[in-house]
Amino acid sequence: MFRQRVITGLVLAAVLVAAVAFLPLPWLALFFASVALIAAWEWSDLAAYQSLWARSLYVGLTALLMLLLYHACELGAKPALANVQSLLGVACLWWAIALLWVKSYPASARLWGTRPMLSLMGVLVLVPAWLAVVFLLSYPRGGLLLLYMVIVVAGADIGAYFAGKRWGRRKLAVAVSPGKSWEGFWGGVIACALLALIVFFGVPTELGLVAILAVVLSCSLASVLGDLVESMVKRHRGVKDSGTLLPGHGGLLDRIDGHTAAAPVFALGLILAGW
Known about the structure:
The protein is mainly alpha-helical. It has one domain. Helix content is 77%, strand content 3%. It has 10 helices and 2 strands, in the order αααααααββααα. The protein has a two-stranded antiparallel ribbon. Strand 1 and strand 2 form a beta hairpin. Helix 4 crosses helix 10, helix 7 crosses helix 9 and helix 7 packs across helix 10. The longest helix is centred in the C-terminal third of the chain and has 29 residues. It is globular.
């Protein structure tokens, strides 16, 4: 299973790099919208929609919302920074609420366990992440920023995996994801701190070390939360994976869950740091 996960991850990384390298911004927005809509299809099942028309309607409404934001935030040209910053701020507030729900699960399911609330959660998980990604790509070095964000999430995941496997004892959120440990969590944090130091000392940037550490570590912490939120919803739904699209990973949503929380935090962090 681990080998299969690695192979699938490498293929996805190659597709991502090729898309960022060769596609212009409008096509990249469409590419990542397609990713978000596949994930929305999988989320519709987690929200207990079963009929084809209901799941298709959910995906269609998600697409319509992204299209409206694309024009409202002027993502195809020079983004309206004030609009983007406000929306990213709302997204980060949502993730703060989600953290409280994860900490209090399963009792918190009384608040979010209905179909309307799960539907809203899916929109809040996917649409701001897409907005953040397209906004990052609008920067002159946006492709590199996006790839670095992906590397930070991967670093948090890999660091947590190996540290948890070697030293994991104390459970991080046993009711949500019994396999995660505090030792693994701190392993991921340390791995991301090292990535921040590599950027500060190895890449010319106008940001100071404190700002880089703040953005990177916030991004890594958010990626853990994104993973836990999806795990919580899957546990509530009684399924192991969001789908079967990706060998070794399950559904596409299972692969990007950490990125859905990391992207808005990363983008807002760069804005607040004055990038």
